[in-house]
Fold:
Amino acid sequence: MKKKDVLKQYTTPIGAPAFVQGPHRFKRREYLNITYRTDREALENLVPEPLEIDQPLVRFEVMKMPDTTGYGAYVECGQAAVVRMGQEQGEFLLAMYLDNLPAIAAGRELSAFPKKLGSAKLFVDSDTLVGTLDYGVLRVATATMGYKHKPLDLEKAQQEVGVPTFMLKILPGYSGRPRICELVRTQITNVTVKGAWIGPARLQLFEHALAPFADLPVREIISASHILTDLTLSPATLIYDYLAEPADAPGEAK
Structure:
């Protein structure tokens, strides 16, 4: 292969790339969201500067994606901290678990989604919406919500889905030191909410060394929503470069 042809490649393996070029449109994406209050100190230990925490709130999410361009069908589970960047309210993604290789590889390589291998499910059990996450053969999380108890205003549902998202992009160099260490921002766009509901909810988190959702314990359920939508993910943009500032003084001018 000529050098000019190497530069034409999108990603590896050559001839059978791990994922295809976007944009990626998600149709009939179904959310189970549970926002809960946790321990402030535990959350502060995980949220990086210059993001700030006003209230120690976490959103647990299970997303069922039956029709995604380039990725196919899969279910994903994540945990996000409610944060603020300056005057902008948003969420910092702590972890995401799924069993779809193209979505894992693209999420990590193209953007900064903190994706790992896990098995998530979202289904209806009689009158209950149920979301689960297993890591290997062990249960990590079980979420339950009353199925479509009350409608949620569609504009509020769209705002909930479209909240700005912050993530850490960390790539080590060949010396072992970070080659890239950045805080990036992304946001869901072209949102069409097809249905949204609220209801009573409960969330159980189980201790696991490699899927530590329970490090942010559930102290109080704040809200729960069930949202059905079409949407598109926008590319990530750089908002803070940790390698461009002194390590002990993020945000200070040089």
In short: The radius of gyration is 19 Å. The chain has a mean pLDDT of 95.
